[in-house]
Design goal:
alpha/beta; six-stranded parallel sheet
Length: 252
């Protein structure tokens, strides 16, 4: 068995790729990143890559034991809530140290017209009172929540093409961040967008739309993050995560 420390990163985010890139160059580490497989052509990180689910917390715990994982880092998207709870349960069962990388959420500033909601369904219920042409940046998986809004027009931006059910009046823009402020300004202007819908995913790569909406005086419906497991230590970025690993395993 190798004397290298095996680190499993639950990935799919910019933070996960950055962390894998930083750790993979360490000769004392073996780095594996697990991707859910929901994106057709994901950006692959450095190190080993595993694509697909584990079969719930028991399957993940079994994988941690069988692959002799020394530390688990949950660097999934803030809205990938199920895997975070599975990771907490699996790490406890396998007695593997767990860290969650939680990027800070966005905060409204002067001039912002934010409408916080708890779910996509609540966002859909609020939309008709705010506008008629919505820029929807919540991903392709939740379009069913808006499918009944027949009188509204939607610009839907996602990495991969969405599948039905979806709003009947919809234009799809396939694109991947980071996005620029100039680009977001032009998008709002060209499509005559009068309301923006987004999840509080945080990070700078997709925050330009918020600044563009503020400048244009456009209301923003912000879906709050789901709850995260309690008692799991957190890091705000890959640098903090790497430092946590060094504390866990001095000498790497």
């Amino acid at each position: 068995m190798s004397d290298r420390r095996h680190i499993l990163i639950l990935g799919g985010t910019t933070e996960a790729r950055r962390l894998a890139g930083e750790l993979a160059g360490d000769p004392g580490l073996r780095v594996t990143t697990s991707l859910a497989g929901r994106v057709a052509q994901p950006r692959l990180p450095a190190g080993d890559v595993r694509i697909g689910g584990f079969g719930g917390p028991s399957g993940l715990a079994r994988w941690l034991r069988e692959q002799h994982v020394d530390a688990l880092i949950d660097a999934t998207h803030p809205f990938a809530g199920t895997i975070s709870f599975n990771a907490a349960e699996a790490a406890a069962a396998a007695r593997v140290p767990l860290l969650a990388v939680r990027r800070p959420g966005w905060e409204p500033g002067p001039g912002d017209r934010w409408h916080p909601v708890a779910s996509l369904a609540e966002a859909a219920g609020l939309l008709p009172a705010l506008g008629e042409r919505a820029f929807l940046t919540t991903g392709r998986m939740g379009l069913a929540a808006f499918a009944h809004l027949e009188d509204m027009w939607f610009l839907v931006r996602s990495v991969d093409a969405p599948e039905p059910p979806a709003p009947p009046r919809m234009e799809v823009l396939l694109d991947r961040g980071p996005f620029t402020l100039d680009g977001e300004r032009e998008l709002l202007r060209r499509h005559r967008v009068d309301v923006l819908v987004t999840k509080d995913s945080g990070a700078a790569a997709t925050s330009a739309k918020l600044a563009a909406a503020r400048e244009a005086g456009i209301p923003v419906v912000v879906v709050r993050r789901p709850p995260a497991p309690e008692g799991v230590p957190t890091a705000a970025d890959p640098a903090e995560a790497a430092e946590w690993l060094r504390r866990c395993f001095p000498g790497i």
